[in-house]
Design a protein that fits this description.
Length: about 140
C-alpha cells in the first residue's frame, strides 16, 4: 500500500511533467508500441494515422487523454472514496475492451523511465511510484472483476 509520503512524492513528480501531457504521453506510448506493436491495435486509429510519434494526431490525442486520466488519479490519491470510484469505473471500461493488469504492467517501465528522465534520477522515487502504481492496478482490478 502506498504511504502518505509516497503519495506526496508521486504528486510532486507529476507536477513536473503535467505541463505537457501530450508529449509525455506520446513518448511513453511510442516506446511501448516500438517494443510491442500489438499494443497499438488496442487503440483505434493509431496505426492508420502515421508513425508512433507526435506527427500522428491519434498518438497526440491518445497520449493526452490517457495522461490526463492518470493525472486525475494522481491528483485524488489523498481522497480515498474518489480515487476508489474513479479506478473502479476505469477498470470496468477497460474490462469491456479486454485491457487488464497485463497491459497496465506492460506500460509501467516506459512510464517510469519517462518520469525519471523528466524529473531527474534524484527526484524520481521508484519505490513511491511502484507502490502507487500497484495501488492503481489494485483499484482498477475491482472493476475488472
Amino acid at each position: 500500500m502506498a504511504t502518505t509520503k509516497d503519495v506526496i512524492s508521486v504528486q510532486q513528480n507529476w507536477k513536473v511533467v503535467s505541463h505537457d501531457l501530450t508529449a509525455f504521453g506520446v513518448e511513453i506510448f511510442s516506446k511501448l508500441f516500438e517494443q510491442n506493436d500489438s499494443y497499438a491495435d488496442l487503440f483505434e486509429g493509431i496505426k492508420v494515422n502515421g508513425d508512433f510519434d507526435v506527427s500522428n494526431p491519434k498518438m497526440r490525442e491518445h497520449g493526452l487523454r490517457i495522461m490526463s486520466t492518470l493525472g486525475s488519479w494522481i491528483h485524488t490519491l489523498s481522497d480515498l472514496p474518489v480515487i476508489s470510484g474513479l479506478l473502479f469505473l476505469q477498470g470496468q471500461e477497460h474490462k469491456a475492451r479486454k485491457i487488464g493488469e497485463k497491459e497496465f504492467k506492460a506500460i509501467q517501465p516506459f512510464l517510469f523511465h519517462a518520469l525519471e528522465s523528466r524529473v531527474g534520477p534524484k527526484e524520481f522515487n521508484l519505490q513511491a511510484w511502484s507502490n502507487v502504481w500497484r495501488w492503481i492496478i489494485d483499484g482498477l482490478a475491482q472493476g475488472w472483476k
